[in-house]
Amino acid sequence: AARERMADPATEAGVEKLVDKETKDPEAKSSDTKKIYEIGDKVDGRCGDSFRLCEIISRRQIGGASEQKDGISSDLTGEFEYYVHFVDCNRRLDRWIGAEDIRAHQASSEGSKDNVGASTDSKCIPQRRTRRNKRKLQESEEGHGSISDPTLAKLEKDHEEATKVKNVDVVYIGGYEIDTWYFSPYPEECTKKKKLFICEFCLKYMRKRSTLLRHAEKCHLRHPPGNEIYRDKNISVFEVDGARNKVFCQCLCLFSKLFLDHKTLYYDVAPFLFYILCEADENGFHAVGYFSKEKSSTENNNLACILTFPPFQRKGYGKFLIEFSYELSRLEGKIGSPEKPLSDLGRLSYRSYWTRVLLRVLSEHRRPLSVKEISQMTFIKEEDIVYTLESLKMLRYWKGQKIISATPRLIEMHQQQLRSRPGRLRLDPDRLQYVPLAERN
Question: Which of 4, 18, 52, 77 could join 47 via S-S bond, C-beta 3.0 to 4.6 A?
Answer without folding.
Answer: 52
